[in-house]
Amino acid sequence: xxxxxxxxxxxxxxxxxxxxxxxxxxxxxxxxxxxxxxxxxxxxxxxxxxxxxxxxxxxxxxxxxxxxxxxxxxxxxxxxxxxxxxxxxxxxxxxxxxxxxxxxxxxxxxxxxxxxxxxxxxxxxxxxxxxxxxxxxxxxxxxxxxxxxxxxxxxxxxxxxxxxxxxxxxxxxxxxxxxxxxxxxxxxxxxxxxxxxxxxxxxxxxxxxxxxxxxxxxxxxxxxxxxxxxxxxxxxxxxxxxxxxxxxxxxxxxxxxxxxxxxxxxxxxxxxxxxxxxxxxxxxxxxxxxxxxxxxxxxxxxxxxxxxxxxxxxxxxxxxxxxxxxxxxxxxxxxxxxxxxxxxxxxxxxxxxxxxxxxxxxxxxxxxxxxxxxxxxxxxxxxxxxxxxxxxxxxxxxxxxxxxxxxxxxxxxxxxxxxxxxxxxxxxxxxxxxxxxxxxxxxxxxxxxxxxxxxxxxxx
Length: 460
Description:
Helix content is 30%, strand content 24%.
């Protein structure tokens, strides 16, 4: 996933010889099941988790800088209704809800300030009519006012791929469908791993000076391969999303925040091409290899969607669902529910020498990788350097100029505007390679799905 990809890039950029193996396909688990956001995590402000928010906002800024084709600012409309007591998951309230608007305003100013000079846009207060204009599907009864604040949006799977491609360009060896089945131990220390090629069922042994376990919700399972008890408990928290046709929700260019749920969560409706993504939940665990959206999960989301939107949607309106597990860190002594656990990360060293990185979120993958490779630097007795802070991802170099060139090339090939935008936002400067395939065979410019911008050339 994104964390392992980030560790591979950070390590190879510091001069290490790196191999990365993944048991399935890249980003096939948690790293393709997100809300597609690179965000600071506004819901962590009410719980005063300021270090996490500051870290995530810093990393959001670096993503906007280092992957400008793949990460884009997006506005979020936050409506405020009469009777709201815990908007954006506030754990406390005021008598009659008086002053909550002011408190939210202060919180959003803090959000902007923590983003610093890399902030996309400052938030602003909206009148009732402005909220209705930006989000026409919202229920108007009881609507008082609202806010418009900004975060960023990204294609999580493409981000993982571009981090991997960048690492490969720096010399990392990377293989998918290659599962670690056991470790090589000498004098109680890990010095290698047995890797099974899932396609040929052939097993090979790979030796390494250091081994990093960056397997998310599978971290405990992998750590137990050393024969030791895992140091920390991973509490998988399932998050599901519903996908709708964008027009069914009357969704414009801005996302919508549903301000209050029965369990004090925060739900997003996010525009995604001709679709709208709605989520997410925070429920317990199940089959880690096959997370699914249950009828209860779907009913929960639909109930809140129909509470706040004037368009009444049912299961029949759902285009698809997807689900994934957050790898939340849980000390073995705590009894907190998954919804109460922080999204912070931890780098752990076992007595066997295995280094495990757990927790975190998509937005903070680079910082997680940096903290992990810092541990390896300290083992080597060398001063940590942080090259990925200003390292453009594959497809970013010369992007603003290339974007204009691609628009001209795409138009000459007869590609629709949404396809040209999609190719640029998915591949950056490398979209030219996809377009060359279309130039050689016009049939490869055909859409795979009539109302989505994916074309046949991308499969190749």
